[in-house]
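Researcher: Here's a chain I'd like modeled. Treat it as a single chain, no partners, no ligands.
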Amino acid sequence: MADWPTEQVVSAAQQGDPRAIATLVCGSHAHVRRFARTLCSTPEDAEDATQEALIVLYRKIGTLRATAALASWMFQIVRNECIRRSRIALRRPISSDEVEPSAEDVALARLEIERIVGAVARLPPDQRAVLVLRDIQGLSGAATAHALGLSRAAMKSRLHRGRETLRVGLRAPIDVAGSGGSEHV
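Model: Modeled as a single isolated chain. Structure tokens:
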């Protein structure tokens, strides 16, 4: 297995070098995934935890204090994500009559997820940032405002506008034909 990225790569990534950041994320992936597989209860949770950890790495590499601490920092992020996912799974009621979803249900769920992700991606950046931190990552209002350097009132306003824009965007009819036109079915 390859070694962790060098301290020079980590240092360059901390300075914002896009090539170094890409090298850092790619070079860390296998290590993070292996660790997640040992901690998470399912392979799917391990993959999700790996992705979350790499997203945190990408977004917050500049906050890492010591370049030599990269591995322990990443492992802590993965550990916390696996614990969070386990807690969610434990809260979910288990039903004895649960059945495997059909291929059609899985495909429809994926399409719905893609539709939601697309709608979030189309939000204005200021609204998207607040919505992701607050509603997806689950930060408190105060933590979200602090992370974005906003007042609580500004954060709440952007969150409200983002949620409303998302709600309207998700109500729009789905363009099944891919024509972009306004054909009625």
